[in-house]
Amino acid sequence: MAVRLTPVRRPPEAADRVPPRRAAGRRRVLAHWPQYLAISPFYLLFAVFGLFPVLFSLFLAFQRWDGLGPMQYVGLDQFRFLLEDSTFWLSMRNTFVIWFLSTIPMLFLALVIAAMLNSSVRFTGFYRVAYFIPNVTSLVAMAIFFGSVFSTNFGLVNAFLRGLGLGTVPWLTDPLGMKIAVAAVITWQWTGYNAIIYLAGMQTIPTELYEAARIDGAGPVQIFFRITVPMLRPIILFTVIVSTVTGMQTFTEPQVLFGTNTTLNPNTGGPAQGALTMVLYFYHQAFDNRNFGYGAAIAWLVFVVIMLFVAINWRIVRRRER
Amino acid sequence: MRPARFFLHAALVLGVIVSIFPFYWMIVMATNDTSAIYQFPPKVTFGGQLLVNLDKVFERVNFFAAMGNTIVVASCTTLLVLFFDSLAAFTFAKFDFPGRRVLFGLLIGIFMLPAQLSLIPQFVIMSKIGWVGELQALIVPAAANAFGIFWMRQYIASAVPDELLDAARLDGCHFFRQYWHVALPTVRPGLAFLGIYTFVMAWNDYVWPLVVLVNPDQLTLQVALSQLNRSYGQDYSMIMAGALLAVLPLVVVFVLFARNFIADAVKGAVRG
Amino acid sequence: MELSRRRFIQLGMAGIALGGAAACSTSTSGGGSGGANTMDMWYWTDGLSKNVVDDAVRRFTQVQLKPQQIGGNFKEKLVTTMASGSDFVPDITGIKGEDFASFTPQADRFQNLLDLGADKLASEYLEWKWKKGMTKDGKMIGFPIDIGPTALFYRRDVFAKAGLPAEPDQIGSQLSTWDDFFAAGVQLKNAVPGAFMISEAWSVFNVAVGQAEARYIDKNEHFIGDQDHIRTAWDLATKAIGLGIDGKVQANTPDWNAGLANGNLASQTGAAWVAIDIKAAAASSSGKWGVAPGPGGTANIGGSFLAITRECAKPDVAFEVIRWILSPENQARGFTDSALFPSTPATYKMPALTAPDPFFANQVTIDVLGKAAEEIPIQYESPHDQEVSGPFQTELTNVESQGKDPKQAWSDAVAAAKQIAERVGVS
Question: Do the Cβ atoms of A40 and A33 come closer than 8 Å?
Fold first, then answer.
């Protein structure tokens, strides 16, 4: 699954770093000791703090455990239940719909905003701060705000829609409305972040290219589509992959908007569980219901789903590159 | 002003309003009394209750100790991540070595696992090595951040021209010098972004800190503020006042470091 | 601030120095288990009266009592800590009512309070609550904190406007069955446009299940959620939907707050602690509310327990602490400070409880609520009861807001509940 990125404007062959005649086996490895040393801190930390949890959760997926009592081996039963669990499939559908509703507008908006900020507009410093503020605010603190904004009778959004003569939408009770609300929150929080990523990438595009194009008489839109976007392809691919992975793992936004008081509500994800995402369902099973084995099975199935979906997305974006 | 310019500014300003409005409303709630939340339609102007609300927060929660701890955790995490991740990313981006593809693939795999999976096993590890309740338990595991490597690798690959490295190698720079003297200065915007992102994430993290911090005088901000939540009859203004104070340092940090996102022409770099 | 490498190194040194200082200072302040004489007590914010807890710290000097208010997800932290079987498990912990049943299979992780002398105190507490703190085989692991007796909270002015009885005892006698209550709801809907008797059908269902003799799973861990007692509750809820007397508003949402404030939600059938949220949301209508006996009898929703873990080094002292904090006198303080409805009937006669409540037009609410508390039926709650009830709520919501056919929804709910039952080991 390695993301292969060719350096800017270089023919592929010249990117070869390895000497033409490779030394055999051990000596080859030893020759690269600085590289291994450089990546070792991360992998060491992962081996200690990441590997054990991963293996433990894989082990858990074959057990039944409530956290306090003994573990009970149940073989593939958790997976069998999972495949028959209509709530899980609902959560998967929800996750994909929310992903679709949020990622595509978000990345497009981010690109446009970055392009606007990259052009010589004044007060870029102020804009940069303003657009990043959503990412800085903790959603948990903002839960009450979004509940209020999307409220059916008194929310700002519906007030706006009524002003336009479009009537009210039950954002927090209708299954599609709920997904749109979650997607809106995700977009609000992450567009600025992606815009800044694109902006950082745009800094690497040499200004001579723009000047040359302008001398040739190209307008801003042409420059955007003919120069900026192609040069940003690797970064765009990057954001697509990252948004796909994090989008499939959406948890905080639906929990903040639709997480419920367990005294009154045995479910989570809002009315009819319309905003239940896969990771939220995993969390609900693992920590609310204390079915840790079942939760682990869900988490691993989510992992497989993410892998497949990332592979598909990557293929799609890469194919457009050729 | 030309029409295109005007629309450009108008669009940007609209975006700013949408981005900032929730934050503005947070200030509105923090400066009013909780009864203002229950007004329909909701109140959108400032009140004068900010100090009253903040007093209630300070009464209940050891706020400044928590802020101190959070500053330490976020700063240390950011520095570790910036160093380890950029070093590893540089290696993946510009060098080929046996097993590179497998190791990088492993990285992406790690990135795809839901984080909450590791709550219990990580706590077990922490209790075995005696780090429960200590800030290291928050800093050290966070330094193994797959996203950071992913991002920097991608940025270094497009921002650091190979000619630059070739020139350095010809000058006799070994691996680490290439990293420190050639690559790092070139990727300042990428680093700045990763730094801010990591700092914000560490600052706002609450799931793992809630579990692993056990001493009420040794908490981070989000955990300390969560103590203000009740099951019913929430005092929202008080909670918002606390949240507002907790977010201000982040805004300050961002404003201070945002200039690094725009690197003017890289000095002395080889281009074209 | 431009980030040159020199600045980067300076910051790095500063950060590491800070981190080192912090690490050094934290290790001297001691780890979680502290000295041999500390007793850790975990509870959630307002789960106990903080004043009472602080007094307990001063009173029980034979140990160093260290109470901690845990915000955020209390159960997540407790279970994670207990699951790692470590020294960080607290000596005393609160357990929420809806979680308690699921802890009973692992009763050996907690002390049996009967061994510590609890049975002498049984007469001071409500019988059904006392029994709720016990496991099937008679071990007592939970000491009662508070309870959630249900009643009807209603708007006197809106009822009067609709020609309905507006005094609590009138309501108690005339609207004592669900059918009478629904008829009143229809009358309200016709007389006062936009007003609803019920906020959401789930509250009817949940309370009705709480009034039955059994719940979703019986004592032998067999699924009984498809039987008549649940079916009756379901039919009641769907009847309310069919009559159009439900406002389709979920509790604690801004729309709910607004409905209470302006009188569109004319009544709430809920536990005593719902009053706190009503008071906050509808502060502008203070003095216009009343509390009456709820239709169909009473049920209990919520209410928690205090437990002593197996890891506790001094269980007898821990028990003394618990019984003092939860004594009738201190439960009165819990009511005043943190709105915890007492589980000790003797408290109902104390001044703190018998004061008139201005929000409810100076009604002495304990008259209604105290009586309701004593009439709550004893039900068996299985450890998996909560989870199995999930599909019923989902399907009821489908009927309520998506217009799904009630009969289809019922069979779907039962089928899904049975699947869950099979997965968790209930036959």
Answer: no
Q: How many CB atoms lie within 10 A of CB A285?
A: 27
> Same topology for domains C38-147+302-354 and C150-299+358-424, yes or no?
yes
Tally of structural domains, chain B:
1
Q: Is A33 a domain residue?
A: no
Q: Is C122 in a helix, a strand, or coil?
A: helix
Asked if the structure places residue A187 within a domain, the reply is yes
**Strand ranges (DSSP E) for chain A?**
63-64, 72-73
Total number of domains in chain A: 1
For C354-371, b/e burial (b = at least 16 CB within 10 A) is eeebebbbebbbbebbbe
The residue of C44, C110, C393 whose CB has the most chain A CBs within 10 angstroms, and thus the best one to mutate to test that interface, is C393
Whole-number pLDDT of residue C264 = 92
B261 band by pLDDT with thresholds 50, 70 and 90: low
Question: Where residue B189 sits, what CATH number does that domain have?
Answer: 1.10.3720.10
d(CA B141, CA B122): 9
Angle between helical axes of A124-136 and B3-30 (0-180°, round to 10): 40
For the segment B97-107, the average pLDDT, to the nearest whole number, is 86
Residues 6+ apart with CB under 8 A from C352: C332, C333, C335, C336
Q: Does a structural domain hold residue B222? A: yes
Q: Are strands C38-44 and C92-95 parallel, antiparallel or unpaired?
A: parallel
Structural domain spans, chain C: 38-147+302-354, 150-299+358-424
All residues at 6 or more sequence positions from C240 whose CB lies less than 8 Å from its CB, including other chains:
C182, C185, C198, C201, C204, C246
Is the Cβ of A207 closer than 8 Å to some Cβ of chain B?
yes
Q: Which residue has the higher pLDDT, A321 or C1?
A: A321
CATH architecture of C150-299+358-424: 3-Layer(aba) Sandwich (3.40)
Query: Which residues are A186's β-sheet partners?
Result: none
Q: What is the pLDDT of residues B169-188, one digit of tens each?
A: 888 888 888 888 888 888 88
Return the pLDDT at A3. 41
Q: Are C363 and C288 in contact (CB under 8 A)?
A: no
The token pair at A54 is 């991963």
List of chains touching C (3+ CB pairs within 8 A): A, B
ipTM, 2 dp: 0.89
Rounded-to-integer distance, Cα A155 and Cα A172, Å: 11
CA-based nearest residue in chain C for residue A171 = C255
A13 found inside a domain: no
C329-346 pLDDT per residue, tens: 999 999 999 999 999 999
Single pTM value for the model: 0.90
Name the residue facing A68 among C109, C386, C387 (closest C-beta): C109
CATH code of the domain containing A246 = 1.10.3720.10
> Among A209-218, A288-297, C54-63, C242-251, where is mean pLDDT lowest?
A209-218
- Which residues from C are below 8 Å from A265, CB to CB? 202, 393
For residue B49, tell me if it sits in a domain. no
Domain that holds residue B176: 61-227
Per residue in C366-399, pLDDT (tens digit) is: 999 999 999 999 999 999 999 999 999 999 999 9
Reported as type and span, the H/E element at residue C65 is strand C64-70
pLDDT digits (tens, 9 = 90+) for B28-81: 999 998 888 787 777 888 988 899 999 999 999 999 999 999 999 999 999 999
Residue A53 covered by a domain = no
* Chain A contacts in chain C segment 327-366 (CB below 8 A): none
- Taking alpha carbons only, the member of C272, C293, C298, C290 closest to residue C356 is C290
Give the per-residue pLDDT at B270.
27
Domain C38-147+302-354 CATH assignment equals 3.90.215.10 = no
8 Å CB contact of A287 and C255: no
Please give the pLDDT value at position C18: 55
**Measured between CB atoms, does B211 come within 8 Å of chain C?**
yes
